[in-house]
Design brief:
Elements: H1 21-30, E1 34-38, H2 42-51, E2 55-58, H3 62-65, H4 77-89, E3 95-99, H5 109-121, E4 127-131, H6 135-145, E5 150-155, H7 174-189, E6 194-198, H8 202-209, E7 216-219, E8 227-230, H9 232-235, H10 253-270, H11 284-297
Parallel strand pairs: 1-2, 1-8, 2-3, 3-4, 4-5, 5-6, 6-7, 7-8
Helix pairs in contact: 2-4, 5-6
Bound molecules: 3-methyl-2-oxobutanoic acid.
Length: 299
């Protein structure tokens, strides 16, 4: 009697499985910390991929870190789509979330759905993120019903920082903390697959975690959330602008970048670059013929 043929299970241990919404929910269930980082272009996406993060957010923080605006408010949908599409080209494994910019989703459900669809169709995002509770809850519900996964973002919401009294921690009174709680529960009920908590007291975040079923990613919200997110340029020390207290630095790349470009400039000015190892050669006979040809051209 012949044994049942064994079908080999394909295994590629070098390439991790792409992140999906069920895998993300499973990570929460297992208590495995979730890692999200922002990226805005092909090289930063490749770095995030190589570092093995779970989620990449093309945050509208890119308005400041890569486009040079003084806040996230002016960035356009076209600009965000260009950043998101470049990021997509550098990623295989992490889930890619595109940030809907200010003014691109608030007016109506139809506007919110149309913008979210552009992030999926034109930039290849897996999901979108929008800010605030309130009227954003209905926009989130509409986008989810249109088949696009939505990440909510509450606490400090930079797109409406002026209305919040500036870039400051939120939920620091019982009343304001209850407001954050209401927004979190409403966004969860609207079908968001995940939430970002930004700049809220750690104790408030911890209490909310006991009541939320979806994964929560924190930034300045303490250690109780299911995961953490940092802005790429903050964590690597590339951005020279103001960094909030929660933005821990894991590198000082700006210093290295300035030193590298300054060394290059000094070598060009001093004649040390390019050296013999940086130039292409031409056969002596070909050079002679070329010189004769130049003479003939009258050059
Ligand atoms: O735009 C962004 O980078 C963000 C994160 C801080 C969550 O929204």
């Amino acid at each position: 009697m012949s044994a049942t043929p064994r079908i080999p299970i394909p295994q590629n241990l070098d390439s991790p499985l792409p992140m999906t919404l069920p895998r993300l929910a499973e990570k929460k269930r297992l208590g495995e910390p979730i890692v999200m980082v922002t990226a805005y272009d092909y090289p930063s996406a490749q770095v995030a991929e190589a570092a093995g993060v779970d989620l990449v957010l093309v945050g509208d923080s890119g308005a400041m870190t890569v486009l040079g605006y003084s806040s996230t408010v002016p960035v356009s949908t076209e600009e965000m789509l260009m950043l998101a599409a470049a990021t997509r080209r550098g990623l295989q494994t992490p889930l890619l979330v595109g940030d809907l910019p200010f003014g691109s989703y608030e007016a109506s459900d139809a506007q919110a759905i149309a913008t979210a669809q552009r992030f999926v169709k034109e930039a290849g995002c897996d999901a979108v993120k929008l800010e605030r509770g309130g009227s954003s809850v209905q926009r989130a519900r509409a986008i989810v019903e249109a088949g696009i996964p939505v990440m909510g973002h509450i606490g400090l919401t930079p797109q409406t920082a002026t209305a919040l009294g500036g870039y400051r921690a939120q939920g620091r009174t019982a009343e304001r903390a209850l407001g954050v709680a209401r927004d979190a529960l409403a966004l969860q009920a609207a079908g968001c697959f995940s939430l970002v908590f930004e700049a809220i007291p750690a104790a408030v975040a911890a209490r909310l975690m006991e009541r939320l079923e979806i994964p929560v990613i924190g930034i300045g919200a303490g250690p109780a959330t299911d995961g953490q997110v940092l802005v790429f340029h903050d964590l690597l020390g590339i951005y020279d602008g103001h960094a909030p207290r929660f933005a821990k630095r894991y590198g000082e790349l700006r210093e290295q970048m300035v030193a590298g470009v300054a060394a290059y400039a000094a070598e060009v000015r001093g004649g040390a670059f390019p050296g013999p190892e940086h130039v292409y050669s031409i056969d002596e006979d070909e050079l002679g013929t070329f010189e004769a040809g130049l003479e003939a051209l009258g050059a």
